[in-house]
Amino acid sequence: MKRETEQRDDVSAAASAEDLRASTSDATDACRRSILKLGFGAFAAGALGLSGAVRAQSGTSQTSAAEHASREGQTIKLVPSLDTVRVGQIEPSAPTAVTIKSGDTVWYDGTWTNWGNEAKYGLTFKEREPIRKKYPNGPFSLIGPVSIIGAEAGDLVECRMLKMRPIDWGWNSAPPGVGALPHDFKPYLRYLKFDKERTAAAYVPGVNIPLNPFQAYIAAQPAGEKPVSANLAGNYGGNLDCAVLGVDTSIFLPVQVSGARVWTGGSMGASGEGNVDQTSIETAFEEMRIQYILHKGAALNVPMAETPDHWIGFGFSDSLENSLVACLRQMISWLSGATGIAPEDCYGIYSVAGSFRVTQYANQTGTVYSTIPPKGIHCMLPKRIFTAALHERIARSIRA
């Protein structure tokens, strides 16, 4: 494993960080802090397997949290290798890949394609089947873990997605028995070449797909000594597989173990919301940069995300109906706690302004994998509906 520290005057990292800072308003920062302090409140037991209790915040230091959030830190390089990548599951026994401080940026010097980087351009469907079957735990090549000094159970890690540049190709496929229509079509595999700027991929003549890179999997390692399938999602994060979590997104992950031990994988070039044939544009990244911010004693006990324009919550279950209900309940609880708006009014706000979208539709009747991804719903709540006064109220509430 290679490791080296770079100065923050690295041009690419500085430009990415500056772009991110420029896109975030004071109101956004205030509401981010409210997320960290107030959390979701009670959370439906059917979503992500949570008990629904929010942790008490006695003794939490606002000064300490501000110091963590303001530190810019260094850039630490992490190279994918047999020592730093696990396929299909996260392993508590895996040694730390890099150790960082809050505010540091991890420069991932590339990520791997699925199945331990064995997915290669041009392999036929028949040639890939033995590779797929070689990894019964799942396809994602997970790099990590990244340990954050001072992170303890009850804290929160903010993962700021600064840069994701794909390699020059990817693929979309539907193996037997997967997706929303597992029996309607024969299995297929389509390779896609990306343009030089990595902005688009030609799917069929006349159809160009804009690239919007994201990581399907990101998780703070859950408690316990057993490996955890990367097909799953939980209160630690995991297989969120949400197409809107691209550059300029913050993903918030509750910490369950010392150091947080963050894993990420499943590099995607683009995806429709719903992921209906079970795959996105699967690819790998030439380069990825994530800044990790530690928030001490934060009350958020489920994963949440923030874009420049929206707050995003998740619900996962065995059906889309149950996923939507769980997502809605947790988002009502969070919004009511953060703003003081009555829960029944929050219910109405989500009905008239929230957007509940299918994250993924998992159906794997003929899969070779030992675990099946849950069906997912994510809610996008637009920030523009709130007045500056309400933003300020949220900011005051977290300083009380």
Describe the structure.
It is a single chain. This protein is α+β, with helices and mostly antiparallel strands. It has one domain (25-399): Acetamidase/Formamidase-like domains (Jelly Rolls). The protein has 8 helices and 23 strands. The chain has helices at residues 11-22, 26-38, 62-70, 114-117, 125-134, 320-339, 343-353, 388-399, and strands at residues 5-6, 75-78, 85-87, 89-90, 98-100, 105-108, 141-148, 156-166, 169-174, 188-193, 200-204, 207-210, 214-220, 228-229, 233-234, 237-239, 250-254, 262-268, 285-295, 304-306, 310-317, 355-360, 375-382. A hairpin with a 2-residue loop joins strand 15 (233-234) and strand 16 (237-239). 49% of the residues are buried. This is Acetamidase. Residues 1-11 have a biased composition (Basic and acidic residues). One of its GO terms (molecular function) is hydrolase activity, acting on carbon-nitrogen (but not peptide) bonds, in linear amides. Residues 1-25 are annotated as: Disordered.
